[in-house]
# Entry
Amino acid sequence: MKKVRGRCSTGGFTVLEVMLVTSMMMTVLATVSVGIRAGNSANEELRRRSVLTAMSSDLMDRLFSIRFGEPGDGEATAAQLSELFDDDDLLGNITLSGMRKPPGVPGYTFQFANFPYDGTWEVRVNADLNGDGDEDDAADGQGGLFRINLYYDGVLILESMRTSAGS
# Structure
């Protein structure tokens, strides 16, 4: 009698099937890994943006707490700026008018020693209310209204306007 060789009926997988499933699993795991990494970096950027927004809000509060001043006020000194932006609640004798610079001219820059991110803050105060680069338009402030922009590493974080009324 001849033995007929045939397929084993033990129900196992062929090498081809195992390789196919393994490559599919590797593809799925790589895709999930990329998604997790993207989610983590997005979460870190949101955390960074939240810290910057909170700090810029505190800085803007300080700028709204100082006197508005008069058009003839002298330019702010380094000592006055240090007093305004240091870690205590004393704001010094600086005025917002003293911080005013013409549009297009860099504002006052500073850094914080214990801030979680290394970067430079910049405060720009001017009367260019419509943002067109000059203070000559009828829509621009007449000395009693300023635009205040807060930048971090050159990126606008917060902007506001302040009037001299009530200060």
Remarks:
- The chain has a mean pLDDT of 86.
- The helical segments are 15-65, 78-84.
- Residues 41-163 form one domain.
- The beta strands are 108-110, 121-126, 145-152, 155-163.
